[in-house]
Each structure stands twice: as C-alpha cells, then as structure tokens.
Specification:
- This protein is α+β, with helices and mostly antiparallel strands.
- The chain is built from two helices and two strands.
- Strands 1-2 form a two-stranded antiparallel ribbon.
- The mean pLDDT is 79.
Length: 80
C-alpha cells in the first residue's frame, strides 16, 4: 500500500513541477512571439473565411515582427 502512495506522490510531484515550468513558458511565448486567433465574419473575405457562414479560420499572429517594426506592405495586421 505504501508503494502505491509513494508512486502517486511521485506522479503528482512530476505533474506539479511540469505545470509550474510549462505555464510561464507558454505565457511568455504567447505574449512575446506568437498568438493563435480565430477569424470570424466577412470582414476578411475572400482571403480569410472564404465560405462565410458559421465557419471560422484560425491564424497565427506574429508578435515578434510587430515589436521589431518589421511590418511590410501586404501583411495583415490585427488590432484589438
């Protein structure tokens, strides 16, 4: 019985330590480098969401280029 409890504690400890490493890394990545967003509606048709309706497209927004002012003509810019 104590071996099962020890294995459970090891598993819980590994999960918690992995959680405390993964969360800050993920938050930093989403804040500094890239962000996943959904494009809904007809404002970007026909380039994004060509069928319209209830479907939406998922895009990766590059935050690194914007922070370094590397926006070029033809780029799609998202403003919140």
């Amino acid at each position: 019985m104590s071996q099962q409890a020890t294995a459970g504690r090891r598993c819980l400890r590994a999960f918690v330590s992995g959680f405390f490493v993964a969360v800050p890394v993920t938050v930093t990545f989403l804040d500094r480098f890239a962000y996943v967003a959904r494009v809904e509606g007809s404002s970007m048709q026909p380039f994004l969401n060509p069928e319209g309706g209830s479907k939406c497209d998922v895009v990766l927004l590059n935050r690194w280029s914007v922070r370094n002012y590397q926006v070029q003509r033809g780029d799609i810019v998202s403003v919140v």
